[in-house]
Amino acid sequence: MSQQELKRDLANRHVQLIAIGGTIGTGLFLGSGKAIQLAGPSVIFAYLIVGIALFFMMRALGELLLSKEGYESFTDIAEDYLGPRAAFITGWTYWFCWIMTAMADVIAVGVYVQYWFDIPQWVPAIVCLLLLLGLNLLTVKLFGELEFWFALIKVITILALIVIAVVLLVIGYQTDAGTVSINNLWDHGGLFPNGMTGFLLSFQMVVFAFVGVELVGVAAAETSDPRKNIPSAINKIPLRILFFYVGALIVLLCINPWTQLNATESPFVKTFSLIGIPLAAGIINFVVLTSAASACNSGLFSTSRILFTLSKSEQAPRSFKKLTKNAVPGNALWVSAVVVSVGALLSKLLPEQAFGIVTTISAICFIWVWSVILISHIKYRKTRSDLHNKSAFKAPFAPFINYVVLALFGLILIVLLVAEATRPALLLTPIWFILLFFLYAFKKPMLK
C-alpha cells in the first residue's frame, strides 16, 4: 500500500519564495494593464487597500493554522468552526478558484508566446500544462524548487525595473512617450482620471492579482517547520505589497503615462520597450511567461492538495487520497490538469474574452474562501478563547478588522454586480454554490 501522508519537504526558503510567488503573478504582469486603463494612477491605492485587507486575512489564517496540530489546510479549520458542510463547500470552491486561476494562467502563456510566434494560443497552453504536470508528479521538493526559481526571476525583474526607473527619473530620460517623471502620475487627468467609478471598477482585476496569497496555508502540511516558517512568510507580506505592487506600479506609471498603456498587453513589456534597452522587451516577455507558468504550477499544486485533503475527510472520492511512491497525490493531479486544460479550449473558442471571464469568476470565489477564513477566525475567538490566549501569533485588531475586511469584500461584490463587464460572471457563479449544496446532500454515493 502507498503511504497516505504528505512529506514535509518544503524548507524555509521554499515557503518564503512560495509566499512571494503567491503575491506576484499574472494579475500583476498582465492584468494590471486592464486595471490601469480603468482607474489610471489611482489603481495604486486599489492595490494598497486590497493588499492591507489580505494581510489581516492572512494573520487570521496564520493564527488558526498554528492553533492546532494536524491542520493541513483551511478546509480543516472551516470544518472545526463552521461545520462539515462549510468545509465541503469551501474546499471544493477553493479547488474551483485555482482551476479558474490556472486556466487564466495557461491562457496568458498562450498570449505571451504569441509575442514571438504566430501560433494559436491553445498550443503553448497545452504544452506548458503537460510539462508542469510531469514535474509535479515527481516530488513536492521539486515543486518547491520550481517555485523558488520562478519567484526569484520575478523578484529580480521588479528590482531591476525599480532601479532602472530611479536612474531614469534622476536623469530625466526621454522616451517616445515623453520625459520620465513623477509628474506623469498626475499630469494626465490627475490621480483619479476616471473618477471613483473607474477606481472601483479596477478592484476586480486587483483582487485577482492577489489570488494565491493564501497558498502558504495550503503548503502548511508540507512545511518542515510551520511554527517558524508560516509566521515569517506572513509577516513579510506588507513589505512585499509595498515593494512589488505599489513600488512597481509607481515606477511603471512614471516611465509610461497611463494613457499609453493597453488593457490587452503587459505594461511591463511595454515599459521596457520604451526604455530602449536592446532585447529588453523580449527578456521581460520571457519573465512574464515564466510568471504565468509559475502561477499555473501553483494552481496544480494547490488543487491536487485540496482534493487530497477533501478525500481524507471523506468530502471527495477516496481515489484522490492515494499517493504515489514519491508521496504526491497523483490521481488528484491528473484530474486537476485535465480540468485546467479547458482553459486552453476557452482560449481557442473565445480568445478575446476568455481571460476576463475566468479572472472574474476566480476573484469572486477567492472572496468566498477568504471570507470563510475571517468568519472562522471570529468563531475561533468566541469559542476557543483558551487557544487564542496562549497563541504566539495573534491576529492584530481582531475581531474588529475581520468585519472591516468582510465589508470591503461585500463592496467589491456590489461593484462586480453593477459593472456590465463583470455582471454575467457574478450572476453565473452562484450556480456553482447551488451545485455544491446539492452535492453535499448526496455526497455519500459520490465518495465510494
UniProtKB/TrEMBL annotation:
It is found in: Cell membrane. The chain crosses the membrane at residues 12-32, 38-58, 92-116, 122-143, 155-175, 195-220, 241-259, 279-308, 328-347, 353-376, 397-419, 425-442. It is a multi-pass membrane protein. GO terms for cellular component: plasma membrane. InterPro entries: AA-permease/SLC12A_dom. Residues 14-443 form the Amino acid permease/ SLC12A domain. Gene3D superfamilies: Amino acid/polyamine transporter I. Keywords: Amino-acid transport, Cell membrane, Membrane, Transmembrane, Transmembrane helix, Transport. GO terms for biological process: amino acid transport; transmembrane transport. The keyword Transmembrane applies. Signal peptide: none annotated. This is D-alanine/D-serine/glycine permease. It comes from Fictibacillus phosphorivorans.
